[in-house]
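Notes from hallway chat w/ T.B., transcribed later so I don't forget. T.B. wanted the structure written out for a chain they're using in a teaching module, and asked if we could keep both sequence and structure tokens in one place. Agreed to drop them here.
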Amino acid sequence: MGTFNTLHTAIQCLQCGQVTPARLQFKFGHTRQLDYKLGDTLLWGGNDRGRPGLPRVMVYGILEDIECPACGAKPVVEEFDIHVENDVLLSVAPMVSYEPYLRSEDGEGTWAVA
């Protein structure tokens, strides 16, 4: 995946319903193995992916560990949309479709203007 950042968040297992901690890797902002949580503002000014200050962006996120820590179920949802507004990480949702990322201006499918 190359250089990426990590979003520390929580997700719900589709098998047991438990909400557990999760780490999502993503490539947007200054990609330098930075750790974020929802509500954080992205850093820029180095190994940048994307463009700062966009009003609404969906960022492709991939789950680091696909096994539910509560029940051990596999597979849980592996791909997520990370919603960013004005460089603030707002929310995470299971990915509905990869299609928006296919139109990404970066050509790599890592983010898309929403």
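Follow-up for T.B.: The two ends are 23 Å apart (CA to CA). Might be a good example for the class.
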